[in-house]
Q: What sequence folds into this?
């Protein structure tokens, strides 16, 4: 995946990849979706109808083309797997705003265009929210139905899931509300009965068969049509928002395949969730809709502002938490997040949540399956078990990251990575075979979390709520007093203990396979199981030993002291925090899930404890670890640079390297420049006064240089290899018979960022982080010495941390 540049390539070969969704490879064939290009096609004959008299002006003097006069198609765009120039993009946007403001004073029509331009951002946010909310609703409904399809089918209509099927039945009793005549298990349909060993085996086989079919379809579709649709997508979204370009990652095919395969993957019963991939789906929607608006289509920095808002939309529809989504985007994924983006993110998240609420995918007027309300207050001494859950979450998070990265690295470096379909089928088979006997692993992970969060009431028929009958006086707060656990509760504890071990191990190998896989829900499930086990233990301790010092004074007999569901929620928060290292946004998301302000302190205590413990065992969250594993050029703002090195220690060329490749401002011809481009793979070249003086003039991008030379050949007659190239403001007189020269000053950056050779590297790193630079030139007394790129900095940081510097693959 090294960037080999455009060595010897023609200008026309650069037109592919001008949009995030132009070309998508499908099993050896190429489909063209270039109708929504970022820029017009580059092989158009722009010189038709224009004659320069064989390269001469009116008086026979060679006519000089100035590329400042007209914009050249393709100049200012970027190659695939390269980083954008944030400074240049923001400068372009400021120039565009200035031009619109000046023109708006000249006519009413221009004023209306200015108003339309200002309103377009809000309109785009509205469309992103509507589209993402609608897709999320469809995914929720489809996944719910297909998950139930593994166990049976509704006779009233195969499109009804179990719950909806029984709602429509008049013969369903409240005590057996999960059983209704219209819902038939596969054993009932095939062998006529649902009891006995043969019926159990038949249900078992059908469960495993459906799981294998769903996962096979998912991995096959991903592999054949959209390889970028696999995984969570959040590591790549973080990298893209930092300015990196991955063509096709947010395109039409990726959106289509990810939406379909996400439903299949979740329905297969694998230990994965849909919440992370929903962020990717929302960003795909935003990227596609950006092509409807010129200012977002042609400016990579502006587009990333929209993608930041889309990340908030993804979390909003995943958890029904608009505010938490905005904070998630701000805290976890966004690189550049101005105040304007904050407002628009909030608006888009609100629209998406409203759209999902209108669809009502779960039929309970809630946006998620595991919405819960608690009624009992918590006591200060309960902070001790809450902090213990935080410690567990931090240890689990650190263990999971190390184990998962080790497994993913094995997948990359061994033959295991050559058989993605087989790997998915084997993991699915193992998951289904081990999950079916245990009712808590057989149900979908979202249903499991809902069951664990549940605050037991009088009418609950769950095993976890099957306490021994004691005289119950219903209080005004709907809370039940602590009661002794019945035999079913103890059975459920054993099953949950086995489910905890199973989920902890199987999630390690599942996350990172070649199908859509989120990590939020599996991590929450691990924490919720641990929390519920601890909560029931504390509840029974309080019931049988209410006279102990720790319970005396606040837990009297007959009182509702302990809420096991709250412990499950705190545990889920702790484990998710340990894996992702989220803090503020995670607490707000969980707060929006419960709708109770009084539980913020337990959530905060568990989240901070989890982060501290996990950070003590390893500094990286799961997404940062996967970014580093894939070699993406992501400069983490949380990582401190504490080494005492200078710019001269990091810059290229080093002492043993050949001299820096440069272009002189007026001393080179087309052939020499094209030869330099063919012999090197650099993404740009410094422009100097002369090879002897090495006085810096500016910097020119490789892509812009190739495009401009080829464009000049098309538009300006007489341009040959001997034509001289000028980057100067004024061009000296040319000999009478010389070929027409090229003036390329318009594509040169006249104010490249420079530092001196004795600048401390911690300052250079801060400049790169805060300004989003691609490269920085190093000078000494005004003379050019070398260049530092983002890749050089990342390699240097890896070397300082005793990591492999060659793991950084891209610039």
A:
């Amino acid at each position: 995946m090294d960037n080999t540049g455009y060595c010897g390539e023609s200008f026309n070969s650069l037109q592919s990849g001008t949009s995030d969704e132009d070309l998508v490879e499908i099993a050896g064939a190429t489909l063209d979706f270039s109708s929504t290009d970022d820029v017009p096609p580059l092989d158009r004959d722009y010189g038709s109808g224009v004659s320069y008299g064989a390269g001469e002006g009116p008086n026979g003097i060679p006519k000089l083309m100035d590329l400042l006069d007209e914009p050249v198609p393709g100049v200012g765009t970027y190659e695939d797997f390269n980083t954008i120039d944030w400074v240049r993009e923001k400068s372009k946007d400021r120039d565009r705003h200035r031009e619109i403001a000046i023109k708006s004073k000249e006519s009413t029509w221009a004023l209306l265009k200015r108003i339309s331009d200002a309103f377009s951002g809000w309109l785009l946010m509205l469309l992103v929210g509507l589209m993402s909310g609608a897709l999320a609703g469809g995914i929720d409904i489809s996944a719910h139905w297909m998950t139930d399809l593994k166990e049976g089918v509704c006779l009233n209509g195969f499109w009804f899931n179990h719950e909806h099927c029984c709602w429509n039945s008049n013969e369903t009793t409240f005590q057996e509300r999960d059983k209704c005549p219209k819902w038939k298990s596969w054993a009932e349909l095939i062998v006529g009965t649902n009891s006995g060993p043969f019926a159990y085996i038949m249900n078992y086989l059908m469960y495993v068969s459906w799981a294998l079919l769903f996962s096979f379809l998912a991995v096959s579709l991903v592999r054949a049509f959209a390889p970028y649709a696999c995984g969570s997508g959040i590591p790549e979204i973080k990298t893209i928002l930092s300015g990196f370009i991955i063509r096709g990652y947010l395109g039409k095919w990726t959106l289509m395949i990810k939406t379909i395969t996400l439903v299949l993957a979740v329905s297969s019963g694998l230990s994965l969730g849909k919440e992370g991939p929903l962020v990717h789906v929302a960003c795909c929607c935003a990227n596609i809709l950006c092509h409807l608006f010129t200012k977002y289509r042609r400016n990579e920095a502006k587009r990333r502002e929209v993608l930041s808002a889309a990340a908030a939309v993804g979390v909003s529809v995943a958890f029904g938490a608009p505010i938490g989504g905005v904070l998630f985007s701000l805290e976890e994924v966004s690189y550049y997040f101005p105040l304007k983006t904050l407002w628009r993110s909030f608006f888009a998240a609100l629209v998406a949540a409203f759209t999902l609420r209108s669809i009502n995918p779960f039929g309970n007027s809630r946006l998620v399956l595991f919405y819960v309300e608690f009624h009992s207050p918590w006591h200060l001494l309960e902070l001790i078990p809450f902090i213990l859950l935080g410690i567990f979450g931090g240890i689990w998070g650190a263990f999971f990251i190390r184990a998962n990265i080790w497994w993913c690295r094995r997948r990359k470096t061994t033959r295991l990575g050559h058989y993605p379909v087989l790997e998915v089928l084997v993991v699915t088979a193992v998951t289904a075979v081990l999950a079916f006997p245990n009712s808590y692993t057989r149900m979908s992970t979202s249903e499991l979390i809902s069951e664990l969060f549940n605050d037991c009431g009088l009418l609950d028929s769950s095993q976890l709520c099957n306490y021994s009958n004691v005289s119950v006086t219903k209080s005004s707060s709907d809370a039940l007093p602590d009661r002794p656990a019945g035999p079913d509760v103890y059975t459920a504890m054993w099953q949950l203990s086995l489910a905890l071990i199973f989920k902890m191990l199987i999630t390690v190998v599942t996350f990172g396979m070649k199908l859509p896989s989120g990590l939020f829900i599996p991590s929450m499930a691990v924490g919720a199981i641990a929390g519920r086990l601890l909560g029931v233990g504390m509840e029974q301790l309080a019931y049988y030993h209410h006279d102990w010092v720790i319970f005396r004074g606040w837990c009297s007999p007959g009182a509702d002291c302990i809420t096991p569901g709250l412990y499950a929620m705190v545990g889920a928060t702790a484990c998710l925090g340990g894996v992702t290292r989220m803090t503020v946004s995670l607490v707000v998301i969980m707060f929006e899930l419960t709708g109770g302000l009084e539980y913020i302190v337990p959530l905060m205590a568990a989240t901070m404890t989890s982060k501290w413990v996990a950070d003590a065992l390893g500094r990286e969250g799961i997404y940062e670890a996967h970014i580093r594993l894939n070699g993406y050029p992501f400069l983490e703002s949380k990582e401190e640079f504490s080494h005492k090195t200078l710019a001269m220690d990091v810059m290229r060329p080093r002492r043993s390297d050949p001299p820096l490749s440069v272009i002189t401002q007026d001393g080179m011809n087309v052939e020499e420049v094209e030869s330099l481009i063919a012999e090197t793979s650099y993404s740009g070249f410094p422009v100097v006064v002369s090879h002897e003086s090495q006085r810096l003039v500016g910097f020119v991008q490789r892509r812009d240089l190739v495009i401009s030379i080829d464009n000049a050949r098309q538009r300006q007659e007489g341009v040959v290899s001997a034509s001289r190239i000028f980057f100067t403001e004024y061009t000296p007189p040319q000999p009478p018979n010389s070929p027409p020269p090229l003036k390329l000053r318009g594509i040169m950056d006249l104010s490249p960022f420079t530092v001196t050779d004795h600048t401390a590297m911690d300052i250079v790193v801060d400049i790169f982080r805060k300004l989003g630079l691609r490269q920085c030139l190093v000078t000494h007394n005004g003379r050019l010495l070398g260049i530092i790129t983002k890749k050089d900095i990342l390699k240097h940081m890896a070397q300082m941390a005793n990591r492999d510097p060659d793991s950084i693959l891209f610039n």
The radius of gyration is 31 Å. DSSP finds 27 helices and 14 strands in the chain.
